[in-house]
Design goal:
It contains 26 helices and 16 strands. The chain is an alpha+beta fold. A 5-stranded mixed beta sheet has the order 9-8-14-16-15. It has a 4-stranded mixed beta sheet with strand order 10-11-13-12.
Length: about 675
């Protein structure tokens, strides 16, 4: 627009701003409109190039310099051993076994392992229809399958988070778009992406979204059938993996949100005979599929439920450290600074990671929104109350009988923190949308509340152990940013809030996992190639990993990832028969009766078991007891020839890697 100033014709400044705004708004609306098409294209491209977020290059610390890193961007995360050392080898073991993707993998433990319980490993079974993340392994092989898994997971969480936020914000597209990244790239999800938080979040959101769309498209019979079927698959997928510490709380949250959805639709729809038929069929399908999954896994489930860890844990609340309420204050720094385990300053990066939320500000704003009779109040009140309850549970104990009948006995400390933080994030997203619509909060009130919340942040940093994690000046800088975000939320300035919050989310979440290509980091090395070559010549032979300092059982997992039969590694549930060979009296049953990382040490004294951590133990095996397992090969970083005696001889087959690992064959006399 042209205007005259002092006789000169110039272009009005606002014209540029308005033009840019309109351009950005058009791009934004097109992204929303074509989001599913964009998601499919991006997914195909990423899978074609075998892109994944695995920290699989961590294996270089074990397999030697011959292994080249496959990371093209970002940082490897050795702390994510549950991913690269547990889940990934389980998947590869399934691909490389003599009977690929079978229910029982005979290469893990002497009696085999039920892979339904092995952190979501792919299994060729009807129940896998509810596990679309694993389909790629079954049809595309290891590298493409891993890319399928990682990229489908993040894309689905993004799409489902958007739909969930649209539901609770009553179709506020900008806030829902921000919310999709807020949830999907939250540090809690990203640090636990390949484990329970990623899986449970995805399936919980899928349950809510498919339930909502069943009612939204109530007049279309085929739409109802499709969404009922997807709802059923989501419920089945939610149950497996079996991880009650998170499933219990997220399950309660899902039920509350679905109840509100029913209340919102109760006057708009009338149930018909077709609904009764669909609901009965859906329920029967869910029950039959879960019954099938239970029957093929019941023995393993029974063993797992009677373990010393995690089976016997009983929580009554009050377990969390004081800083857990504001644990997200560390979120921004976690991708760039690892916790030193020896210092015991705070728990590791994974355990302390959380969802960003503004719960104190939301609680103080809620009475004003209730007085204004805002829309969607049922969601805001319920999410805030649910979150506040688990704040109470974090710091105060409840009677044990209440804990057990409500199943909260399964909800341990760090998971109680997530039970507060996730709905707290949803409540914050709802509040941003609602306040931006009704504008009920005065500027002075927003300033006072924001400053008070900022002071509470500072007190948490100053007087809890997280002040030792990183220098105070970095915390203060981040607290100032959070004060601004609290103020913008209370003022309902959703655009500026979205810009700043989006930057915080990307820095703290999108930088967690590396950009990795394929699975070469675990296979393109001399040690793995030698294991495969020996196994090909001598299939079915029993291998033993020996290294007392390998508390995560990595070498044992490397063995079965390469298709060989390993005594060590990670057992999702205990193989009691295997250990009773060394412990006929049951003296050490409390040590090995657990889901655990396992390694061996050869000794001259009687065999015994040493508990290293709650989920890790060492087997001190007498040199003459090795024969009890018919062990044929050993991978070790120790000189085993020193144990040669009149009954057993260790012969080095493969020279040690730079990390010291060699392969020995065993000759019995």
């Amino acid at each position: 627009m042209l205007v005259y100033v002092k006789g000169e014709m110039i272009l009005e400044k606002n014209f540029f701003i308005n033009t840019i705004d309109k351009g950005i708004e058009k791009i934004f609306h097109n992204i929303i409109k074509y989001r599913y098409f964009i998601a499919i294209i991006v997914f195909i491209i990423l899978v074609v190039f075998k892109v994944n977020g695995s920290s699989i290059s961590s294996w270089s610390a074990y397999v030697g310099e011959s292994a080249k890193s496959t990371i093209v961007s970002g940082q490897n995360r050795p702390i994510r051993s549950d991913e690269w050392e547990v889940l990934t080898p389980n998947i590869l073991a399934q691909s490389n076994s003599d009977t690929p993707f079978s229910l029982i993998n005979q290469n893990i433990a002497t009696s085999g392992q039920n892979m339904v319980l092995s952190l979501g490993a792919p299994v060729k079974d009807i129940y896998t229809i509810s596990k679309p993340l694993n389909w790629g392994y079954l049809f595309l092989g290891k590298s493409y399958g891993m890319s399928w898994y990682w990229n489908m997971k993040i894309i689905l969480i993004l799409l489902l988070s958007f739909e969930l936020c649209m539901i609770i914000t009553k179709n506020n597209k900008l806030v829902a778009f921000l919310g999709s990244f807020w949830l999907a790239f939250s540090p809690a999800v990203q640090w636990w992406f390949a484990q329970h938080v990623g899986d449970v979040t995805l399936y919980m959101e899928a349950i809510i979204v498919t339930f909502y769309y069943y009612f939204k498209f109530h007049d279309k019979i085929w739409a109802k059938i499709i969404f009922a079927f997807l709802f059923a698959l989501s419920c089945i997928g939610y149950v497996f993996p079996i991880y009650p510490p998170l499933q219990v709380t997220y399950g309660y949250l899902a039920l509350i949100i679905m109840f509100i959805i029913i209340l919102n639709f109760r006057k708009k729809i009338k149930l018909r005979m077709s609904d009764t038929i669909i609901m009965i069929c859906t329920s029967v399908f869910i029950i039959l599929m879960l019954l099938h999954a239970y029957l093929i896994s019941k023995d393993a489930i029974s063993i797992l439920s009677h373990t010393a860890y995690p089976g016997k844990r009983v929580s009554t609340g009050g377990e969390d450290p004081k800083y857990f309420f504001y644990s997200f204050l560390t979120n921004l720094f976690l991708p760039f600074k690892s916790v030193d385990f020896k210092s015991n300053i705070v728990i590791n990066n994974c355990e302390i990671s959380s969802f960003f939320n503004f719960l104190p500000a939301v609680i103080l704003a809620l009475p004003l929104l209730i007085r204004k009779k805002g829309e969607n109040l049922k969601f805001g009140i319920s999410l805030t109350a649910f979150s506040a309850f688990f704040v109470f549970y974090m710091y105060f104990k409840i009677p044990i009988f209440i804990s057990k009948i409500t199943l909260l006995s399964y909800v341990t400390g760090p998971r109680a923190m997530l039970a507060y933080a996730f709905p707290g994030a949803l409540a914050s997203i709802w509040a941003l949308s609602e306040i931006s619509r009704v504008k009920v909060i005065k500027r002075y009130y927003s300033i006072i509340v924001s400053i008070l919340v900022g002071i509470s942040y500072f007190i948490c940093v100053k007087y809890t152990q997280i002040n030792l994690y990183i220098e105070l000046k970095y915390y203060i800088a981040f607290i100032l940013i959070l004060i601004v975000l609290n103020y913008l939320l209370l003022m309902g300035n959703k655009r500026l809030f979205a810009v700043i919050m989006f930057c915080v989310i990307i820095i703290s979440g999108a930088t967690v996992n590396p950009v990795n290509i394929g699975t070469g980091a675990i296979y393109n090395n001399n040690l793995s190639k030698e294991i495969q070559a020996i196994d090909k010549k001598d299939p079915g032979a029993v291998w033993m990993p020996v290294n007392k300092n390998d508390s995560i059982g990595a070498i044992g997992a490397l063995i079965y990832a390469n298709g060989a039969n390993s005594l060590g590694g990670v057992n999702s549930y205990p193989d009691i028969g295997k250990w009773s060979v060394l412990d006929s009296t049951g003296k050490y049953v409390d040590v090995y009766n657990r889901s655990a990382h396992i390694t061996f040490e050869i000794v001259d004294v009687p065999s015994n078991f040493v508990l290293q951590f709650a989920d890790s133990f060492l087997v001190d095996i007498n040199v003459n007891d090795i024969k009890k397992y018919n062990t044929k090969y050993i991978v070790s970083n120790e000189n085993l020839e020193q144990f040669n005696n009149s009954t057993i001889t260790f012969v080095k087959l493969y020279p040690a890697t730079p990390e010291g690992y060699a392969i020995y064959s065993i000759e019995y006399k």
